[in-house]
Known about the structure:
Number of strands: 6
CATH topology: Alpha-Beta Plaits
Number of helices: 4
Distance between the termini: 32 Å
Structural class: alpha+beta
Strand content: 15-25%
CATH class: Alpha Beta
Largest sheet: 6 strands, mixed
Radius of gyration: 15 Å
Helix content: 25-40%
Shape: globular
Amino acid sequence: MKTDGTQLAVLFLDIDDFKDYNDRFGRQEGDYVLQKIAETMRMVARGEDVASRYGGEELTLVLGCGFDAASRVAERLRSEIEQRCSTFADRQVRRSITVSIGLATFGRDSYSADKLVQIAEARMSRAKAMGKNLVYDGDVDFNQPTPHESIIGPARRRA
Length: 159
């Protein structure tokens, strides 16, 4: 990657308790939830953003922006998924769905695309450990952890 001022952020999402959802309601219902989340990601994503399925119930959204804008997009995405994938908003959803999101930004966290994804994934895991349904962009257990910590979302819990 270039270090010419390019702005780039990675959001790493994991659907909270999705295996339990699939086990309880079946894969067809799980597939429907994945479709609803993909639809929500397309709605929140801007023209230059790239959404993809990373594997299983893990998804990524690569954003062409810096930390502040990425934080706003991440929280909007988390909130929209919570609202749109609820039993109140969609009768086919059997139990309200939430996501945990890790955020990493180019320059602030790393200059390597692979490392950005790795950091975002580790932060998503930290969000899950902190109670789920939140965005996390703070320290993770790496050789050189970032010196900041913040939580975006309704829980706003500190480690």
